[in-house]
Amino acid sequence: MTIRLDIVTAEQLVFSDDVDIVVAPGIDGELAVLPRHAPLMTMLQPGELRLRKGGEETLMAITGGFLEVRPDRVTVLADAAERAEDIDAARAEEAKRRAEERLSGKVSEADAARAEAALRRSLLRLRVAEKRRRRRSEL
Amino acid sequence: MANIRLIRRRIRGVQSIAKITRAMEMIATSKMRRAQEAGVAGRPYDEKIRQVISALAALPQAGGAPHPLLQRRAVNKIAVVHITSDRGLCGGLNSNINRTTASFLVEQEVPATLITVGRKGSEFMRRVGRDVRAEFTRLGDRPSLLDTLPISRIVIDDYCSGLVDVVYLAYARFVTTMTQTPVLEQLLPVEPAEMPAMQNVEYIYEPDPEAVLGELLPRFVEMEVYHAILESIASEQSARMVAMRNATESANELIEDLTLLYNKARQESITTELLDITGGAAALK
Which member of A9, A28, A68 has the closest CB to residue B207? Predict the structure, then answer.
């Protein structure tokens, strides 16, 4: 038995397929959704979203949003979502370096918050990309 | 003789204009397609967010006031987010939106402030002496949601701080390639659509309904602004496409007329020359 998963952002439909299980970074901790889950609406925190279809697992980086569960389908309204294989590790590394640089200098509160958010995003991207690479080499 | 050269030069000039307008038409066509696709791509997100908001707003409020963005207040000041294009050469598109907003503002009895997106609208509003609170230009042909966030930020902040009591969104709605209509819609306070009864599923909310609604509403406003901008880009490009097609057609007609004129003038000059020669030859005899 599978459940339909749609991952959408304001700009595009990122993912749409039938999957066996979705594990998402809920606001109150990680949660797994299987077919026939009770209707649920939860906020998401930035983190990684895993889904499995057949034996194959896919990793995605999500920067917050919402998750809606209905009897027959799961919808993720993501602020931004990227598949692990699409993540440009070099770019994420660069963004991380920039954010750290900005944080180490003297900055206003708003700038610091922005830099910190950027740093958190790039770290998340790197972590997801790294994880995928490791899993690849294990196979 | 001079006349002939003049006509020939004119023909060449019109030909190069036609080339340019033709190229602009093709560019506008491809940009329009892209803008349309971007609009369609965001639709599932938009639909979902609307559904959830109306489901949440229909819930009995757990004590206390409704969310600030849903709250209706006595109107003392209004704001209009006025969306136009940066560039011209797109027929009457921008003047239509400018006129719609301007006549709307004239009807209002309370002071109004403007947030303009696009150079054409901001120039117009300043020319007629309207209060422009913020202006955004050079968003380009494919703005991302991130590019439009500062716009929605101002709108939400102004509304929440009580600076304005109602916010409207004015832009060119893309109906078909041939038609774009200026529309003026209410953006804030958010008016949740009535829920079709069958969609009322009992959800578990995490952490709780108020928190979810509080997070969803700003995103909804951001989405509405973003969508309006995408629509107006699609409208701009299709209006330009049509305008440029008309321009190319007129240029080609002009070329035909001028060519006819040119051939006539040429023939005439040949005839006079022949007459001169035969006349001269006859005189020699």
Answer: A28
pLDDT, chain B, mean: 89
Residues sharing a CB contact under 8 Å with residue B83, sequence separation 6 or more, in sequence order: B97, B116, B117, B118, B121, B169, B170, B171, B172, B228, B229, B232
Percentage of chain B lying above the pLDDT 90 cut: 61
Residue B276 is assigned to a structural domain of this protein: no
Query: Which chain B residues are within 8 Å of A27, Cβ to Cβ?
Result: 206-207
Question: What is the domain extent for residue B42?
Answer: 23-242
3-state secondary structure (DSSP) of residue A62: strand
Q: Is residue B115 part of a domain?
A: yes
Is the domain spanning A3-84 CATH 2.60.40.1120? The answer is no
Across the interface, of A11, A26, A77, the residue whose CB is closest to B48 is A77
B226 touches chain A (CB under 8 A): yes
Report the CATH number that the domain containing residue B176 is assigned in CATH: 3.40.1380.10
Q: Cβ of A110 under 8 Å from any chain B Cβ?
A: no
- Model confidence pLDDT, tens digit, residues A130-139: 777 777 666 5
Is residue B270 in some structural domain?
A: no
Q: Where are the beta strands (DSSP E) in chain B?
A: 78-83, 112-117, 132-136, 166-174, 180-188, 204-206
Tell which CATH classification among 2.20.28.160, 1.20.5.440, 3.10.450.40, 1.10.10.10 matches the domain A87-138: 1.20.5.440
3-state secondary structure at position B200: coil
- Please say if the pLDDT value at position B205 is more than 80: yes
Q: What is the ipTM of this complex?
A: 0.73
Residues of chain B in contact with residue A70, where contact means CB-CB under 8 angstroms, are 201
| B274 found inside a domain | no
Sorted by sequence, the CB contacts under 8 Å of residue B16 that are 6+ apart come out as none
- On whether the CB atoms of residues A11 and B144 are closer than 8 A, the answer is yes
Residue among B244, B232, B226 at smallest CA distance from B28:
B244
- Say how many domains are in chain B: 1
Question: What pLDDT, in 10s, does the model give residues A60-111?
Answer: 888 888 999 988 889 999 888 777 777 777 787 888 888 788 777 766 777 7
Give the integer Cα–Cα distance in Å for B225 and A10: 11
For B101-121, what is each residue's pLDDT tens digit? 999 999 999 999 999 999 999
- For B246, the token pair is 């008309």
Give residue-wise pLDDT tens across range B16-67: 999 999 999 999 999 999 988 888 888 888 888 888 888 787 776 555 667 8
Residues of chain A with CATH 2.60.15.10: 3-84
